[in-house]
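Q: Protein A?
A:
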Amino acid sequence: MTETTPGYFIAGTTFTAPPLAPGLYVVATPIGNLRDITIRALETLAAASVILCEDTRMSARLLDHYGIKARRIALHEHNERAKADDIVNRIAAGAAIALISDAGTPLLSDPGFPLIRALAEANQPVFAIPGASALLSALVVAGLPTDAFAFHGFLPNKAGARGNALRALSDSRETLVFYESPRRLDDTLAAMATLWPGRQAAVALELTKRFERVHRGTLTELAQEFADTETKGEAVIIVAGAAEPAAPDAADWQADLLKAMADQPLRAAVDAVTEQYGLKRKEVYDAALALKAEK
């Protein structure tokens, strides 16, 4: 590997990176363990003309570890809108540029969205180079349902706004996933426990690192465990969704249906009870016909 031949090395063995087609390459990087990077990601980073980094100092640890020499430019929340047009123009002129965040998959609570939107509007190519993600890593070890989940990133810093955001999610049935800083983890768990004390949850810390751990329990138990405690590194909080509401008692809604039928046409009575109890209309209609036949 020479200055003019892009490449990378793994455990002392050098590899040449194949050339890239023009476009922006959104590259996932390790969230802790440097070995959690794909060969395709290494090839892409080595061959890119420029690597856009959330923080060039943070990215240096990974890039230097694999001997990647590509030019690095900072792209973060404070300058990404100003730099978007220039990057779009470079790609339109034939450049292959990589985008990475400090860790994990870019754009998930990290910079990059304005740039991707600008490229999409300019009809310029964007490629995903998948890999590590704290969101998915925490979700699969939490022991909570994964068939439907919603990612909400970081909650607001201020207590009032945080409480409002959580209350808006109280009826959500899917598993909820949040990121949180070590400084606010105790306050956030306390706020969640106030609203949803008995819900099962998990807190994932130091994922993929030597001291990786997952704490599971009710939100009340987790709030007590982390009270006045500051952890190291960002946490992922996974919370069970709201339980399905209990089915209304058949005797209750059928009694109300009978009363409604005494004062209203059958169809109107069916509609009123269906809406009141959140039932399927056919179920209520069939019950109405049966009650009518009994008279």
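Q: Protein B?
A:
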Amino acid sequence: MKTIPTLFKALIALVIAMQAHSIYAQSGQFSAAANNFLKKRTDAFMTITGYSLTPDVTTGSLSITDKGGDNPNLQMISLGGGDRISANFPLYLEGTIAFNRYNPTFTDGIGNSSVTVPVKWTGVTGTGGIGWDFPLTDNLRIRPIANIMLGHVESDLSVAGRIIENKTGVDLQFLNGGRMNAYGTGGSLMLDYEDYKPEREYDVELRYTNIAINTFDSSTAVQGSADSQSLGLWARARYPTPLTVLERPLRAVFEVAHTEFLGQLRGALGFDSLSSVGTGVEFDRSASDPMFSRVRLVFRYQFGQNVRGTSIGLAASF
């Protein structure tokens, strides 16, 4: 008489075990999908960081928004520069500090649930370079440069983690930290042409850069790497005008630049290259302030494949 109840209990236990296995399997699927998502977005952010490692007028200020598609918002701004210590001591020093804001969207796509959470990444990177000039002619020199980079990324992942956990019941521990550190090492090779005369001044630079970026002291889920390679050409001409400002002639400035992105940077944001044309004015302050001898204000128009934009650059010469 006890056989039926015993079988009934066994059946109930089997059903519960099957449901538990199904829930565990879905949780595992979700965790795997979430980790894959985060890994891809980490590599993407590492690649994006590569656009702002060196002084470059084409990528000094970028803001990309595609509200009609799946592309995330991106804002990039950087401040950088470099120069020789002096004509008699051709040690070259450069530095760049960049701020990046990257807003991917997290969508789980597991089962019947639909969870879409904005995940905001904010990064700051600093790059330094040291090189030496080897003269080829009176106006042309070749300049090898050693570069090193450090970066730190913080995100609102802890908020996203709580929302996803409440929706799915899955404990995503990798979302609780939301921090990533990165370093990069590499170098550049530059050809620098300078021809200065009282009636005009010409500057031309051709530069190849290769910096490998890797994470360190970061959780397993947010480890990534990227290879930043670019080839850039930049030229500037300055002419004195009849106007006098601060006891010196006001100079007219004309500028062109083109950067070809190579390796992982090529096509990462939907374009293979960026170009820039600009014009502005330069104030000579050497009569009153020997430290900041010149100050330039340049309006630039930047363009590339499916990319158009404008920017205003402020620069100073020491």
